[in-house]
Amino acid sequence: MGKVTGFLEIDRQVHKYQPAADRIRHFREFTLPMSDKEVEKQAARCMDCGVPYCHGPTGCPVHNQIPDWNDLVYSGDWATAIRNLHSTNNFPEFTGRICPAPCEEACTLNLEDIPVAIKTIEQALADKAYETGYIRPYPPQAKTGKRVAIIGSGPAGMAAAQQLGRAGHEVHVYERENRPGGLLRYGIPDFKMEKHYIDRRVEQMQGEGVTFFCGVNVGVDRKVTDLLAEYDAVLYCGGSETPRPAGIPGDDLEGVHDAMPYLVQQNKRVGGEDIRSVAWPSEPILAGGKHVVVVGGGDTASDCVGTAFRQGAVRVTQLDIRPQPPEKEDKLTVWPYWATKMRTSSSQAEGAEREFQVATLEFIGEDGQLTGVKCCEVDDKRKPVAGTEFVIRADLAFIAIGFAGPLSSGVVAEMEGQMQVSTDSRRSRNVTANDRDYRTSVERLYAAGDVRRGQSLVVWAIREGRQAARSIDEALMGSTLLPR
Which of 47, 61, 141, 387 would disulfide-bridge 463, Cβ 3.0–4.6 Å? Predict the structure, then answer.
């Protein structure tokens, strides 16, 4: 695939960023797009691998045919490449921006730390699809007469809705918030992905016959049992939204917050919405002029860092209980799997101070207001090291250590109480369903995405939504042409 000697002749190149001093002044995307010719050169680097791990189970959950569309881009056949990409991925403009690109980790050239710029090429293809008019409604030729309800309009719900709509079913998507997108819209900052991309897809799906009902909190405003009585199938894609409890003393102080209410508020501000949320009601949280501490080392923590800088924080410190990883992994031990190595996000590169192998002991305050975070170093077993305690000044602190399953109220409460739906309640109350047919213990009720598998990536949610759609179509019609 690509140019036979391309990987020898052409250096790896990816999108450049606006300087940090410029990009922290706004909430827009800050990547600088490459020209078509530059993208074609990067696609030319794709090797004729005997086993292309990039689109196998270690590389791409939706099994994008990466070598194929790399070769097409290199040949200048962008139109066919766009069709190929969309055959496996409903929303490449999402994954091309926010996926951590395990495909690049699995690339054969990553053995030399110069993987093909797959994510950059995917984003370029997705953007080219809009420019050329490829992203338009593709309504089904005939309707089946079957009706499907989808609870939740995140990436899993949207992917399932589009697949089922194109199969000819009448699809109704119920969303708790004012606009579709779920945490794709309200959890991911606009500087990582602007939300007009979601709006474009929603418009496309509406043209394909999908109907969105926003501001409907299923489990509260409408019962799941009512949906089951009204529709031929119901798919639950509610996401993983319950913050993982940190158990840190002083977390009730003013100025200490879970990460998600903070991110949701800012996304609503940027979108011109009322910042109050059904799931995360809170007073306005702003970091301007404050010393901020973020507890956690993942993507959500990084999003808090970038948001705080854009709001005008004086100083942002990020605490990670894990040891500082090595600069480079042992390729022969790890490849083609995702490696633990030192990574710096664009938000962290904007000036965050990072502390590794540090535990948060206590939030300290005066008169009920946060003033500092007491920390200490930990050993390899994450046990505190005596005599290493220190205090970081903090006016605002965010807990971003992950999510422990769906919200326990609303849908899950009804499912567990009235419907006896099985959940793994000992751990996180994820709805029990296998990854073959996505059926729950209740007839005609399915579950997919983070609400089933737990906190995960957008690309995994898209995969599960597509596969659940295939299962539902097959159950309703006896057979299916939808891809798995």
Answer: 61
